[in-house]
Amino acid sequence: MEDKEKEKEKENKKGEENQNPILVETAGRVGLIRLNRPRQMNALNDALMDALGLALQAFDEDDGIGAIVVTGNDKAFAAGADIAAMRGWDYMDVFKSNYITRNWETLRSVRKPVIAAVAGYALGGGCELAMACDILIAADNAVFGLPELKLAVMPGAGGTQRLPRAISKAKAMDMCMTARNMGAAEAERSGLVSRVVAAERLMDEAMAVAQTIAGFSLPSMMAVKEAVNRAWESSLSEGILFERRQLHALFATADLKEGMNAFLERREPVFRHR
Ligand code: DAK
Questions:
Q1: Are strands 76-78 and 114-118 parallel, antiparallel or unpaired?
Q2: Which helix or strand (DSSP H or E) is residue 47 part of?
Q3: Taking the model in full, what pTM does it have?
Q4: Which SUPFAM superfamilies does the entry mention (predicted)?
Q5: Catalytic-labelled residue, pool 120, 124, 125, 159
Q6: Which residue among 35, 83, 91, 160 is best mutated to probe the pocket of ligand 1, counting the most ligand atoms within 8 A of its Cβ?
Q7: Chain-wide mean pLDDT for the chain?
Q8: Which one of 148, 184, 188, 205 is the catalytic residue?
Q9: Which whole number is the average pLDDT over 27-42?
């Protein structure tokens, strides 16, 4: 049995040597990142998370990009952190190397909007990755869950923190403690996802949303993202003050003048993202 497992691991590794863990493309001002470990249900290992972090940073720095879409394949967005990679680690391995923080957290520093387009399984770290994005669009076959307790581990990439903020404390406890899955309809009802579409329309919808977002003024968009994120982490008074100052700052942009002039001149605005 052990030999068989080792053989399988070897085979998987061989297959992966020639395979990029992510695929990157652009469409106009939208950057698209596909998680690409289909044989492992896009299980999130270091190679994938390193590559994802670098791709996110590259799009964030690219003046030609205004929005980013992260997706998987039709069976799995991602079925969690890579269990095969994790099983050999001990406390010192994860503590000293700062597991999760060392590469997963890159997503938190991205200032442009990031949309998760989720079909199939988004479990454990996969669900946490989707929740760390700004907008979550689900196919009707999407399945969300935090089943970590089945492995006697716990959600460790923000799941216990983002889920109760996204849905309710009781529902988050239910998901974390029973390790049950949630379908797309329940996820939409609970406020975990922003919209659900037929699986075959997922990428069209996600890319259309991203194109709309990327068409607006980028500095104004970044101000919106920062302000909404502030709502999660501050009191209402602090959040309102932050929002007000962001609004004041936008009066210094050329795009705000262009937006208002274009409206009054009854024409489409031409934003220069400055
Ligand atoms: N890791 C590694 N391989 C995985 C995987 C995963 N998470 N999920 C699936 N695979 C692999 C399977 O082993 C299988 O490989 P082969 O046997 O073909 O080599 C292949 O993908 C296809 O999977 P199945 O044969 O199982 O396919 P099914 O359609 O039957 O089932 C499934 C699909 C997604 C329901 C099932 O694969 C499944 O239950 N997967 C595991 C889901 C799961 O438990 N996810 C949570 C992982 S734990 C921490 C921070 C964060 C975390 C932990 C610690 N610290 C800071 C310390 C996060 C933990 C997690 O995410």
A1: unpaired
A2: helix 46-61
A3: 0.94
A4: ClpP/crotonase
A5: 125
A6: 83
A7: 95
A8: 148
A9: 98
